[in-house]
Amino acid sequence: MARPIWTGVLSFGLVSVPVGLYTATSAHTLRFHQLQRGTSDRIRNRRVNERTGEEVELDDIVKGFDTGDEYVLVEPDELDEIAPGRSKALEISGFVDLDAIDPIFFDRTYYLGPKSKEYAKVYALLERALAKTNRAGVATFVMRGREYLVALKSEEGILTLHTLHWADEIRNPREEVPDLPASRTSAGAKEMRMAEQLIDALATDWDPEEFHDTYRDKVAALIQAKKAGETVEKAEPAAEATNVIDLTEALRASVERARGRRGEVTRDEGTKGQGQGRGKGKGQGEGQGKGQGKRGRKESGLSELTKAELYERASAAGIPGRSGMKRDELIKALERAGRQAA
């Protein structure tokens, strides 16, 4: 069992219960050591006195705030002494509608558990009441020399504590992000209709188990390949930005491909009689190599695929040199492979 990273007393009104705070998530990032190039010598960070060059023990280090002309020294014990409730109190100041908290405020998640079985009843009472009312308890507390704003909520029979950003920590996007569209900017009715159709076609249920850290797998594969003296194929370049002039065409092709994946009948409701040769799913008409040039590509269905999808098909077909090919080159290579197979 994990050890709590913080212990204290949770209180709401005149009711209180001793609790422990536990880490809810863990990162699975692969860790690398720093080495000097050409050697196996580790590079380590050291705490060094910049005046003498000598290493300093952790116990001999204090915090100092630079006021401009001198440092004000603060001991760790002094920070604990001024902390509200001596860093041991988690008092709920109020309960808010859970849906009223903007997602941008959420930071990290922790599990909150009762300190012992004798407090299980009070703990369960608060958890079930929060679940029934769909509310979150808002509180502040101090942990490791820092005060946190938190939201306490119920999640599948357990209390979870979510640290929140303070209001003045949220940056104004209009001041931080350049080139945002003006409020008066609007898309055409046809483009909007297709965008809505694309969203509907790609609608799905949220299932986090369907997502996997593929980048970590590739890093692990790279390490194993280098250890064995092998090479690893380079990933395909990032997709090119959609040209505004071709936006309608890109949306139409996206809708057809998304519907094709689901086996639905593909039809552009606003452009009947147009787009001949479309409406094929991913498994239809691909790699057939009918005709030449653009017409042949439309009939084969390859022109409607993204570069990543073309690369996947090239990998499955065993096309050599695919990692360095551009999108058009991948299409031509797949068409040649299709003609040879036929």
Task: Give the tags.
2 domains; alpha+beta; two-stranded antiparallel ribbon; Ku70, Chain: A, Domain 2; 7-stranded mixed β-barrel; 9 helices; 342 residues
Q: Would you write up a description of this structure?
A:
Helices cover 30% and strands 20% of the residues. The protein has helices spanning 76-82, 120-133, 173-176, 189-201, 214-227, 247-261, 293-300, 307-317, 327-341; strands spanning 6-12, 15-23, 63-66, 71-74, 89-97, 106-114, 135-143, 146-155, 158-164. It is of the alpha+beta class and 342 residues long. It has 2 domains: 6-27 and 81-169, Ku70, Chain: A, Domain 2; 197-341, no CATH class. It is built from 9 helices and 9 strands. The protein has a 7-stranded mixed beta barrel. The chain has a two-stranded antiparallel ribbon with strand order 3-4.
Q: Secondary structure elements and their pairing?
A:
Layout: E1 6-12, E2 15-23, E3 63-66, E4 71-74, H1 76-82, E5 89-97, E6 106-114, H2 120-133, E7 135-143, E8 146-155, E9 158-164, H3 173-176, H4 189-201, H5 214-227, H6 247-261, H7 293-300, H8 307-317, H9 327-341
Parallel strand pairs: 1-5
Antiparallel strand pairs: 1-2, 2-6, 3-4, 5-7, 6-9, 7-8, 8-9
